[in-house]
Amino acid sequence: MLTRTIAIHYVRAALRGALRGGHDVSGVLAAAGVSAALLADDRARVTADQYTLLIQALWDELDDEAMGFAAKPSKRGTFQTMCLLAVHCPDLGSALRRGLDFYDLLDAQPTARLVDDGGEVHRLELDLSGADDPDHFLTESLLVLWHRFSSWLVGRRIPLRRVDFTYPEPAHGGEYHLIFGCPLGFEASSTSLWFDSRFLRMPVVQDEAALRRYLRGSPAELLSRRDYGANTASLVRRILGNGISGGLPEVASRLGVSAPTLRRKLATEGTSFREVREQLLRDQAVASLVRGGESVEELAIRLGFSEASAFHRAFKRWTGSSPGAYRAGSS
């Protein structure tokens, strides 16, 4: 999987439930290698590994997989148990129904249900009426979790027809296009994932051994796997991430389209070639600085900058911090 980083918004949002409950989150941040100073800049990013450690530390601190956002806590291990039940089902439809029945048995909140919308289309609908979720963190996490887990069960990405939300588009709504890669609807009558019904008939291809490996990377494995190649931006990112040099014309040729067509497709998705390339460079830079072992000068050269000063300026623009300060804050 190509390197992805996660906006600092999601770190702040994840911590809100613990802070609201009076918990000291300094240990949680330390466990994830995230400096408290990073929380102050909206441009900051963390790696998927850091995010995984943060959420796992929150689960342990609170003994609540809902992290203080639901009407009642979901004890540590609940999701793992649901996965164990689902992975033994013959197909995705029965796996989802068994998983949802399990949560119903526990009277878990929020609730979810599988809705048949005319035979060819189903939707997974969430009822978050009992949640205290001002940043929509729990909403977003549950939608992504169910989609990613369903795709993992059948061993292929399930393309979403659309995703609806009952609330207006939030300030961080730009992240939604990266996360879901499909048309979005806001101020809708329900919060739902829409997908083709045929996927419910697909066989479950995973087993318990694969599940154990999968859960070791949870929740980053579930919440940050966005490079499925479902849209043009993902395809461009994958080509660039494989070390293909050159600009838009060269990438367009690789995709078998003209440069104007590629530019138009990216604009339709609300992005541009330059933005996709900068996001990739930003994510690779953040991952290297957190990982360590590579000097800033070596990193600048590897990413194609003619000199370290140009990389310093770009990184400051991307994250609000200098490379040195970012490395120190993640150590």
Automatic annotation (TrEMBL):
SUPFAM superfamilies for this protein: Homeodomain-like (SSF46689)
One Pfam family this sequence matches: Arabinose_bd
Example of a GO cellular component annotation carried by this entry: cytosol
GO MF, one annotated term: DNA-binding transcription factor activity
Domain called HTH araC/xylS-type: residue spans: 230-329
This protein's record includes keyword Cell inner membrane: no
Keywords from the UniProt entry: DNA-binding, Transcription, Transcription regulation
Protein name per the record: AraC family transcriptional regulator
